[in-house]
Design goal:
The chain has about 350 residues and is α/β, with parallel strands linked by helices. The protein contains 13 helices and twelve strands. The chain has two domains: about 170 residues, Rossmann fold, CATH 3.40.50; about 120 residues, Dehydroquinate synthase-like - alpha domain (Dehydroquinate synthase-like, alpha domain), CATH 1.20.1090.10.
Length: about 350
Amino acid sequence: MEKLTVRASGSYDVVIGDGLLPDAVSYLSPIIRNGAVTIVSDDKVYPLYGDALKRRLAANGNKAYSFVFPNGERSKNADVYIRLLNFLAESAMSRADTVVALGGGVVGDMAGFAAATYMRGIKVVQMPTSLLAAVDSSVGGKTGIDLKAGKNLAGVFYQPSLVLCDYRTFDTLDPAEFTGGMAEVIKHGILAGGELRELLYGPIKPNLEKIIRLNVQIKRDVVEADEREAGARKLLNLGHTIGHAVETLSSYALSHGQSVAIGTCLTARICAKQGVCSQAVADEVIKLFTLHGLPTETMYSAKEIADTARLDKKRKTELITWVWIEDLGRCVLKDIPMDDYEHLISLGLQQDNKGKAS
């Protein structure tokens, strides 16, 4: 078992281990005390783990409720969010009570946003059951929902009271979901280099606890330095500007992980063509995503991607902040004029006759 502490606007522990869920109440007790708990989950995860957790909470003397919504990004919308707020109110949840997010990134974002805004803020515990949520979205306090115009356009920064990651739950993930989570792991490996980068070339599951810990350490250090994304935390958006655009264009048929993989690979090609990194660096980035079964190209045009990216949160008037790859372990931020954006994306889309980035 591993335990790390995040010291942001509130301090909290991230506990990582194999088989933690059966003993979850002992970790939750110092936070929930004798208060009520609402478990927020989706209809794929809740049948696996939710009822058992609810029974354990009731046996501990806590009033326990559950709010379950359909699995998938399409549920991360204003309608489900308002239904969740109404459910919390109808359950007479108070400021002393706690929301538990049991699921992947969508569940964590939704539950976190509801907890942050219900009664101007009640406690939330993140219990990630997917690799993507464990290494990325459960840590750092980003919460939010999607609007019709794009991803995560409504939300707040709101730190959890605890992150409890039982990675045995990953055994029940569809293989594609685990693969999607690897996109964020690879992203952190590109940003940080070092040991995590090396681990990406070996078997993942035997090293899962170490890999999760390294990812959480990377994110913790960035969040502690820049909680509200005024500077260095923007580096964690590597691949996300293009990625969010293609994810939106696909109406979420592409997963978040697939979209980040595409966005990062296009970014690597652009950086190589602009002389920001060597072709060898770009090739290694693409190799890492290919090695783990993730896509490296998109069917969407530069114009479609650029037009969609105009609604990205990282845009500042006519500039958009982009993460450029200089080397594995060294990335930088650069503001790009929106007028140049379509042309740059086109560089990432250009292929030679062999189908390899030229």
